[in-house]
Write a structure and sequence with these properties.
Blueprint (H helix, E strand, L loop, with lengths): L11 E7 L5 H16 L4 E3 L4 E3 L1 E6 L11 E5 L14 E8 L4 E6 L7 H10 L5 E6 L1 H10 L3 E2 L8 H8 L7 E5 L5 E6 L2 H16 L1
Parallel strand pairs: 1-7, 9-10
Antiparallel strand pairs: 2-3, 4-5, 4-8, 5-6, 6-7, 8-11, 10-11
Helix pairs in contact: 1-5, 2-4
Length: about 210
Amino acid sequence: MVDINEGVIKFSTKEHNQTKALQSDEYRELENWREKLWKVKLIGSYFPSNIGYGNLSVLKDYKDRINTEEPQFLITGTQTGHKENLSGEDYVRVLSFNEKTFAVKSEGPCLPSSETPSHYSLYKAKKDIKAIFHVHDSKIWKYLCEEHPLFTPADVEYGTPEMARQFLEMDLPEKGIIVMKGHEDGFVSYANTMDDAGELLLELYHKLNG
């Protein structure tokens, strides 16, 4: 059963700066991968609730907007999983994140994904990470819960400070997949490139689905 709170933002959005749609050259490559993952339903929405799932990000340098040494990235907006294609209205820049107050400073036409703290924590945990894809699949999730060595505990919910701390404390290989045992159907891939992050997911999908 899908959690009715799926996709609910749990961080502060008070520092979000509403802007016009982003230009396609900023998000096009990420959107290309999102379209591939949407076609195999690793991104989508649950029927009949239409609750969306799945979010992608790529590391960016937005120091012209806020000069910080902390990770900055482009991410899909909250509750966009049900859309087959996204536009500049559906992407947002994450400029900074305050771990103490759990507040995100962002800029764009929409609010960032509810999984933004998890993305931030992974980028901070390992500087080689340049792309993070969070997707859902019940069959793959159950397989990973039984077989996979990288995971967050079953009592840790998505989008929480506890989840962010779990990612920060992990000893991560260069690229890989992490199953979120406390976030039904959810797992993430990460890598130094979008292509590597995406191929990890597609290889696993085809391995289990033929």
